Amino acid sequence: MKQLMSNFKGYYKELILGPVFKLTEAVFELFVPLIMARMIDIGIANNDTGYIIQNGLLLVLLGALGLAAALTCQYFASRVAQGFGYSLRKKLFHHVFRLSEREYGKIGTDSLITRLTNDVNQVQTGVNMFIRLAIRAPFLAIGSIIMAMTINLKIGLIFLISTPLIVLVLYVIMNRSVPFYGRIQQKQDRISRLAGENLEGVRVIRAFSKQESEIRQFDQTGNELAEVTIRVGKISAALNPITYVIVNLAIVAIVWMGSQYANLGILASGDITALVNYMSQTLLALIVLANLIVLFTKAIASAKRVCEVLDLQPSMAAPEQTPDAPGSEEKIRFQDVCFSYHGTENALEGITFSLKKGQTLGIIGGTGCGKTTLVQLLNRFYDVGSGSILVDGIPVQDYRLEDLRGKIGLVPQAARLFSGTLRENLKIADPEADDETLWHALEVAQGKEFAEALPDGLDTRLDEGGKNLSGGQKQRLTIARALVKDPEILVLDDSASALDYATDAALRRALKAENRERTVLMISQRASTIKNADRILVLDDGCQAGLGSHEELLASCPVYREICESQGLITKEADA
Length: 576
Prior knowledge:
Elements: H1 2-5, H2 12-44, H3 49-98, H4 101-107, H5 109-134, H6 136-151, H7 153-200, H8 202-207, H9 211-237, H10 239-263, H11 269-310, E1 330-340, E2 346-356, E3 360-365, H12 371-378, E4 386-391, E5 394-395, H13 401-407, E6 408-411, E7 420-421, H14 422-426, H15 435-444, H16 448-453, E8 461-462, H17 471-484, E9 489-493, H18 501-514, E10 519-523, H19 527-530, E11 535-540, E12 543-548, H20 550-556, H21 558-566, H22 569-575
Parallel strand pairs: 3-10, 3-11, 6-9, 9-10
Antiparallel strand pairs: 1-2, 1-4, 4-5, 7-8, 11-12
Helix pairs in contact: 2-3, 2-5, 2-6, 2-11, 3-5, 5-7, 5-11, 6-7, 6-11, 7-9, 7-10, 7-11, 10-11, 15-17, 20-21
């Protein structure tokens, strides 16, 4: 929770003045029943119009002052709450980007979105209501009891009996209902996850005609949320009837005792009216307090969820400065690298190879053999379990993450574009890139022709995820985006899978001619795509099955030969 308190920085003055103005309004409100009592006992009883007008104007003045105080408090509360919410969202969003892939997998993307939006909103609302009502409500309840006892001590005892009874009812109902709010948050997380998965995979769902089953699953989850919400609503619904019964019985007792004292001349009719008003004020203050407890319970639950993320430290530490390169001839070296996800069976084991500047490494193997994992380790999305990875002779753990990833241009397996213009997507790699650089990158990536044919060229707007483009177009744009960066190391993670053979071959020729100093790692399922690489790494079930040139592997690696045979590559060469 200490991390949350730091978000109040710059708003301490408003944090103090807000409750002060709200207390001022409460004080004015406590004097209203007394003035009304005087108007009844003196003004109305004596038919003194001037006195009634005078005290009426005083009520208007108190109302105006109370309104001014309330509005001032609301202004301060809004400033604090909005500033707090902005600071917390900014801190949380910044912290999320510091987490590694391991922490992302632990919490889940949908849960992170819910915490960034709904949970922060709940905490922000809690802050707002705390400033406005958390001090005012108990002060008004206690103040009403004290003011009632100043009118008549014996009747004031009714307040001391009824108020604890109302508090007991509030406690019992809150104690029963509060645990359900944590379950409601969990159900909301599940709904967010289902909605995200279905909206992102809507094409797959339609392709398999699974709309009805997905709708049923969503309905079931929604019904579970509704059941929990209705259940807590039923418990909370008992609050008003029970408290109003207690208050009305107390008012009956006040009127009955008051009439007895009025007959004895101890109390005036205006005093009885004031006591009834104070009892109503006590009830309203306690009901507000009960609602605040519910709201604060939600806010505290949300605050804990936010703090879970803020307290989650990145599993990968990085230095603030990258050491000087030792001048190694090797651009990349993997030395006996082993890695496993979450302590399970190794996804990679005993991977060893090296590449010099300007060399190309082809990586091939069956599905799930660890090809993508290998390049994720190079980018240091995860840390190796054992062994070492060196870039320019420096272990990747010794790099500033910005420096390491600044050397690498990654084209991921799944082409990911963002809503905005084509130009904005390409300039993610280099915000300072000019149009000439962008068009050159598109030309190398074999995307210039279709980009020129778009209605607005580089200014064409892309839908979310680039859904208004084909798979091949998206892949070429992601390749161009990586080339805009002009990286020392280019990683192509099966990024030509949606391209036809002719475009794939043209892309490889263009990459080879474009920059001979660039080191390239090319993952592909097609042996024809990587057969001309300087070296080819063959993976089989996470292990290194072979390393060498195309000809060497055909002679020495059964796994590689089997892949080539299955794709008809050996037959074609023999025929040639």
